[in-house]
Amino acid sequence: MNVRAACVARRRWLRHVGSCAVGASLAGCGFRLRQPPNLVYRRIALIGFEARSPMAEALRAALPADIAVQDTPAGAEVVITVLQDRYYRTVAASTTAGQVRELQLRVLLRYRLTTPEGHMLVSDTQLEQTRNLSYSESWALAKSTEETALAREMRNDIAAQLLRVLDTTSRQSQIPPP
After folding, report:
1. Are 7 and 83 found together in one domain?
2. How many domains is the chain partitioned into structurally?
3. Coiled-coil ranges per the record (predicted)?
4. Do 18 and 86 reside in the same domain of the chain?
5. Listing from the earlier edge strand, what are the strands of the sheet with 120-134?
6. Domain hosting residue 15, numbered range
7. Which residues pair with 93 in a beta bridge?
8. What average pLDDT does the chain have?
9. Mind listing the pLDDT tens digit for each residue in 119-151?
10. Are residues 61 and 115 in the same domain?
């Protein structure tokens, strides 16, 4: 075996030992990937979304499959009332010639959580995601695709945040009063 092959074999062995050490240390510290929230609610009403709202679709996709989504509060255990669902696209930077160089993308969701009877669980709350996107006229189609992907990612992140809020309220409602 020549020197080069021995060095390659040694590097492979060191990488293997290193990855095993990292895996063992992560397993030993209790590390787990984030799990979806375990919601107590089984029937959730989504009120106030516009027809075919991408945010409503992201929220429906984020909910576990065993939860029924309703359009009316009747029969629901919790009601998510959307006060504002907006997507903003503004120019963040431009050249002296007026060409756009950077866009700012914002997804905003204002909501409140109530019981079907109208008891407030979470008062008016705003969740917002902002991303900057470089822009070039010569790459307009690619940048449009990138913008769509970023907007989808921001909506998914807001939906996950809302599910964590639902999980927290469901846990708080299970705590017996002192």
Report:
1. no
2. 2
3. none
4. no
5. 68-70, 43-47, 78-94, 100-114, 120-134
6. 1-33
7. 102
8. 86
9. 999 999 999 999 999 998 888 899 999 999 999
10. yes
